[in-house]
Automatic annotation (TrEMBL):
Homotetramer. Residues 228-508 form the YjeF C-terminal domain. This is Bifunctional NAD(P)H-hydrate repair enzyme. (6S)-NADPHX binds at residues 61-65, 131-137, 162, 263, 332, 383, 449. The lineage of its organism: Bacteria, Pseudomonadati, Thermodesulfobacteriota, Desulfovibrionia, Desulfovibrionales. The keyword Nuclease does not apply. Belongs to the NnrE/AIBP family. In the N-terminal section; belongs to the NnrE/AIBP family. It catalyses: (6R)-NADPHX = (6S)-NADPHX; (6S)-NADHX + ADP = AMP + phosphate + NADH + H(+); (6S)-NADPHX + ADP = AMP + phosphate + NADPH + H(+); (6R)-NADHX = (6S)-NADHX.
């Protein structure tokens, strides 16, 4: 379900351990990388015979990859020129070895400390200027080369080696500019920065190439970050012939208030469409029929006689909760003072596996001491605005530092956190997982309510909280991608998301 996303430092550790502990030479890894990158080029571009190729080679290992690719491309009939950023005598190690091999094949080489005049137009550009270790601001000389690559790239196919030059491999941010690639051949595993939304426009089509880092090395030196893969949906429970509604998961949704009755309805439909056997919405008696909205599939458990939540309802529900496998708290709950007081009384004592969403998060923000009292099988699902309230910050600050904010939050709160948005983050105190999806079709009111229902079903069916969160997030994202086909300009409703959940699984599997 999870694929490792090493940071640049973690990837360097894999390389060093492979070379030092296993004894596989760096030149072997570099040769594997260059050949895999050429395969990516051929699969994306087609034949290179007779094509003019410019390879830009920096002074590090990415430059060595570019020299090695030049050798291979010459043999495939390409007309290759290598533009190196350092004098030849300043290249060291494996990069120097590949430079020498390229020289012996009489490959055209040009020392290019900076762009003095526009270069002629090539068919293909190989970007090997900078690697994943780059984290500072581009020097003026390198910035001018990046700008020239991007100028030429408007009419050329651009392949980035491992990462587009100028992109930070840790946070995916251009510093201050980066190469715009048509495709990126990254090695062994995508680096963390490549999979963050800010990097997407630079990376193009991302190809992950196996270069021979042993699995033993990867296992011994595991990463903190992971990408949620399509295997997530293979973890969805396979229907059994002898199953019945009581064994398919019983979900309780606590929500609904005057004017906010659609949210718990969508959560309930999301839970049912993702396979829950029984879903009940509990809400004040006065809004019960509106929450049900003539859906015979949704059961209700009305409380009180009016339309408001009361503190006294907490004790009634605490007795009811053991009948359910999971609880979703918050959709459409409202933010009245009595509602917040109700949640304060209920949340800390709730014995069930719980998702806290929407107005439930607002209540936690009013009583932050409750965060430390939550069970470790609780899942919090804030969007950036709700996250800002939880930690007394701003939405802009959350979006600037999504990973750091999420990871710092779970060091103090032992629950699982889902920070929603493009490239949704799922994290606990041990592991951080990223969604591969950034789907505009999910940017509609009620979308998060549907997601909460899906996660409620996964929890109810016995998945661990982190796995339930990852499966739900992936399923939700895959559904957004499916909806894009029928609603290319958006316009789909949250109910369309819920109703398309079964089809999304069929598409993925």
């Amino acid at each position: 379900m999870l694929k490792p996303l090493p940071t640049p430092a973690e990837m360097a550790e894999w390389d060093n351990r492979t070379i030092r502990d296993i004894g596989i030479p760096g030149l072997t890894l570099m040769e594997s990388a260059s050949r895999e990158a050429v395969h990516v080029l051929l699969s994306e571009y087609g034949s290179v015979s007779g094509k003019k190729v410019f390879c830009f080679a920096g002074s590090g290992n990415n430059g060595g990859d570019a020299f090695a690719m030049a050798r291979i491309l010459i043999d495939l009939g390409a007309e290759v020129s290598v533009f190196h950023t350092k004098p030849k005598k300043q290249y060291r190690g494996d990069a120097r070895t590949n430079l020498k091999w390229a020289q012996k094949l009489s490959i055209s080489m040009v020392h290019l400390p900076s762009i003095q005049a526009p270069l002629p137009q090539p068919d293909i550009i190989i970007d090997g200027l900078l690697g994943t270790g780059f984290k500072d601001t581009l020097r003026e000389s390198t910035l001018s080369i990046v700008r020239e690559i991007n100028r030429l790239g408007r009419r050329s196919f651009v392949l980035a080696i491992d990462i587009p030059s100028g992109l930070n491999g840790l946070n995916g941010v251009a510093q201050p500019e980066a190469v715009y690639a048509n495709a990126t051949a990254t090695f062994q595993a995508p680096k963390l920065g490549l999979c963050l939304p800010s990097a997407t426009k630079h990376v193009g089509c991302l190809h992950t190439c196996n270069i021979g880092i042993p699995k033993q090395i990867q296992s011994k030196h595991s990463t903190r970050h992971y990408l949620i893969s399509d295997h997530a949906l293979q973890s969805v429970r396979t229907p059994q012939q002898d199953m019945h509604k009581g064994t398919a998961g019983k979900v309780l949704v606590i929500g609904g208030s005057e004017g906010l009755t659609g949210a718990p309805h969508l959560t309930a439909i999301g839970a049912l469409r993702s396979g829950a056997g029984l879903v009940t919405v509990t809400c004040p008696m006065g809004v019960c029929e509106s929450v049900k909205a003539n859906s015979p599939d949704i059961m209700t458990f009305p409380l009180g006689s009016g339309s408001e939540w009361e503190v006294s309802m907490a004790e009634i529900l605490l007795e009811k909760v053991p009948e359910y496998d999971s609880v979703v708290i918050g959709p459409g709950l409202g933010r009245a003072r009595k509602t917040v007081d109700f949640l304060k009384s209920f949340v800390a004592k709730c014995p069930a596996r719980t998702i806290i969403d929407a107005d439930g998060l607002y209540a936690l923000a009013q009583h932050p001491q409750l965060l430390s009292e939550l069970r470790n099988d609780t899942i919090l699902t804030p969007h950036p605005g709700e996250m800002a309230k939880l930690i007394n910050s701003t939405t802009e600050e959350i979006q600037r530092n999504r990973l750091n904010v999420a990871q710092q939050f779970v060091t103090a709160c032992k629950s699982v956190l889902i920070l929603k948005g493009a490239g949704t983050i799922v994290t606990d105190q041990d592991v951080t997982c990223l969604s591969p999806f950034s789907e505009p079709n999910l940017s509609v009111g009620g979308s998060g309510d549907v997601l909460a229902g899906v996660i409620g079903t996964m929890l109810a069916q016995g998945h661990t909280p982190r796995d339930a969160a990852c499966i739900g997030v992936y399923w939700h994202g895959a559904t957004g991608r499916l909806l894009k086909k029928n609603f290319p300009a958006r316009g789909n409703l949250a109910l369309d998301i819920a109703n398309s959940l079964p089809k999304a699984v069929q598409q993925e599997l």
